[in-house]
């Protein structure tokens, strides 16, 4: 099927499609994301004009392409360069140490994506609060399949578009329960859905003002705001303070010891403006943090409560 809208461009910085867009996927069974064996990425989104399915390809090292279908196709294609990191500028990043210098050199195309869609990033971030990632991804998959819209276009497999804010707000309590989401997280999502239009305004604000707007929502703290900023705002400095593992991961990867959040923040000062970039480079380089010496966070089956 011929695309309804398309765009081909040469990025201003080296860009690796898969490394850049991969952080937008919420687990291997995410109904809104699909990558085929040839490296083509399909992704769904919801724009102000309606839903859209996008097909991202990289025909050459210096060429990116996006094709789209659906009522929101034109709007979605217009933002495609930002989704693939066009606004991300690594020019001022200084690795400072050999480990990061090597990771940066080996991953020159890693960019920080910017979707501009706040609520789209907020819901899965809330689902990931205080639970293991596998559990959050399962809840996301279940709810999107149950309440999302059918993806337009010639998708290689059946896909869904995440529910609209009004649909999230109308999900009955028992459906949250069946999806393994506790009342605290479901209330946070429902409340945020009622103010979704105000939250979307944060995409045009400064980093400080955007974080302030997000954390005005009950149940949305610094960690959740950072997770949104990394994806919706393309914030290369958004460090997920309060993460269950991050401080010790960075502590061991860079300094060989456990760290508290406060110690991590102080130690990361030399990379101000690029602290999230440091995390992504370490991840892509396969750098491991602290060896596991204790129990992992447990799976909590809220459906049995």
Give a brief rundown of this model.
This protein is α+β, with helices and mostly antiparallel strands and 305 residues long.
Explain how this protein is built.
This protein is α+β, with helices and mostly antiparallel strands. The chain is built from 15 helices and 7 strands. The chain has helices at residues 17-21, 73-78, 80-83, 98-106, 118-127, 133-147, 165-169, 173-178, 183-194, 196-200, 207-215, 222-233, 246-255, 261-267, 275-284, and strands at 5-9, 33-35, 41-47, 50-60, 63-69, 149-150, 160-161. Helix 5 runs antiparallel to helix 9 (183-194), helix 5 (118-127) crosses helix 12 (222-233) and helix 11 packs across helix 12 (222-233). It is globular, with a radius of gyration of 19 Å. Residues 292-299 have low confidence and may be disordered.
Structural class: alpha+beta
Helix percentage range: 40-55%
Number of helices: 15
Mean pLDDT: 94
Q: How many whole angstroms does the radius of gyration measure?
A: 19 Å
Shape: globular
Name the strands of the widest sheet in spatial order.
Answer: 1-5-4-3-2
What is the H/E string? EHEEEEHHHHHEEHHHHHHHHH
* Unreliable stretches covering 5 or more consecutive residues: 292-299
**Major sheet: size, sense and barrel closure?**
5 strands, antiparallel
Instruction: Report the sheet-strand fraction.
Output: 5-15%
Number of separate strands = 7
End-to-end Cα distance, whole Å, is 47 Å
